[in-house]
Design goal:
Strand content: 35-45%
Mean pLDDT: 76
CATH class of one domain: Mainly Beta
Order of helices and strands: HEHHEEEEEEEEEHEEEEEE
Radius of gyration: 37 Å
Number of strands: 16
């Protein structure tokens, strides 16, 4: 009786408490959706303490494959003088066994060996059997082109893919004329060990609105060489969406925006997966960064070999704190691309890419720097 009267007197208080709890859960869920943090993901704590520093591998120059030098021409041997012959009553043409300049060295040596007995005996030397006519030597056939898997970009690396994560980044852009823009980007890396998905959206802030500049998506499988893209889509502002298809079985790349078809080399990537493939290479063995990292990258209209080089260790000031990073750069290559691409990887954070910078040939610079990393709850 006492318990029942207590519930009756305080049911308003209990009801108000239950409503308050529900409102708190609803508010937390709404905020998580607004800031892009699902309830089942946990943020990586800001890094402010001392971090483990790895020794940089010594730089080793990439050995370029050299074509074999052509063989020197074989000098022609002058024929030996024919041995003296006995006089004949009738004039005849040269004997069938007479050595000529068209014969090879073995024939001329045989003529010299017969000269000595000819001087000792008046008998005529034995007549050599007729030699077949020498056919003109055909030019050597050109060497076959090296197979695609033997090309520099076909080098296989030891890889260890990073675990899934979502990234929030701030975007800063300076146009060629000096005008500055700011914005935000979100990037998501998902994998279950056999397949993967990557998404990247970049936008800038204009007054009270956000304008999306770039959207990249990529999905495919995981193999011994690391990430193996199947399809990449790219959508830029005021342009139609394009798709790049990686036919792994046929070993070729095709493009929706072009009729071109490129051979698919081992370890080929697309623009969305390159940062995570580099992270996988670092996790696999840091000493692989001692030499050039050549990666074939399928773009919207063709495929290009990206050559990355380790610049060195750098500390970045981010909203997550000071991060110790390894900076990799793809300098411009005449005839291939005129833009520079820099990627900063954080060894203490699983080698995740924490900053990406693109320096265009015009001088415009776009930098994306991480502000938060979210990992699925274990």
């Amino acid at each position: 009786m006492t318990s029942a009267s207590f519930l009756v007197r305080h049911r308003r208080v209990l009801l108000l408490g239950a409503v308050t709890v529900l409102l708190h859960y609803a508010t937390i869920g709404w905020l998580a959706a607004r800031i892009g943090m699902p309830a089942h993901e946990t943020p990586v704590a800001p890094t402010v303490s001392a971090q483990l520093r790895l020794a940089l591998p010594p730089r080793t120059e990439t050995v370029q494959r050299q074509e074999p030098a052509p063989a020197p021409p074989v000098p022609q041997r002058r024929p030996h003088a024919a041995p003296p012959q006995p006089a004949s009553d009738t004039a005849e043409g040269p004997e069938e066994g007479t050595t000529t300049a068209a014969d090879d060295g073995d024939a001329s040596q045989g003529g010299a060996a017969e000269a000595a007995p000819a001087l000792q005996s008046p008998a005529p030397p034995p007549v050599a059997p007729p030699q077949p006519a020498v056919q003109p030597t055909a030019p050597p056939a050109p060497e076959p082109a090296p197979a695609a898997d033997n090309a520099p970009a076909g080098r296989r690396f030891r890889v260890n893919l990073p675990p899934p994560a979502a990234f929030e980044l701030e975007v800063k852009r300076t146009d060629a004329d000096g005008r500055k823009w700011t914005g935000v980007a979100d990037m998501r890396w998902q994998t279950d060990g056999s397949t993967y998905k990557v998404g990247l959206n970049v936008g800038i802030s204009m007054l009270i609105a956000r304008v999306d500049l770039l959207a990249l998506t990529s999905e495919g499988t995981i193999d011994d060489a690391g990430i193996a893209p199947v399809t990449m889509t790219e959508k830029r502002r005021s342009r139609s969406m394009t798709a790049t298809h990686f036919h792994q079985d046929e070993r070729r790349i095709t493009f929706s925006a072009s009729s071109a078809s490129e051979p698919l080399l081992a370890g080929a990537q697309d623009k969305a997966t390159v940062p995570f493939q580099l992270a996988a290479i670092g996790r696999g063995d840091v000493n692989q960064f001692a030499g050039d990292i050549d990666i074939q990258v399928g773009e919207d209209r063709g495929a290009t070999i990206y050559r990355f080089q380790l610049v060195g260790e750098e500390e970045l000031e981010t909203k997550m704190g000071r991060l110790v990073t390894w900076r990799l750069a793809r300098p411009p290559r005449p005839g291939s691309y005129n833009a520079r691409l820099d990627i900063w990887l954080a060894p203490s954070l699983g080698w995740y890419p924490v900053q990406i910078r693109n320096t265009e040939g015009s001088g415009a610079v776009t930098t994306q720097t991480v502000t938060r990393i979210l990992r699925p709850a274990q």
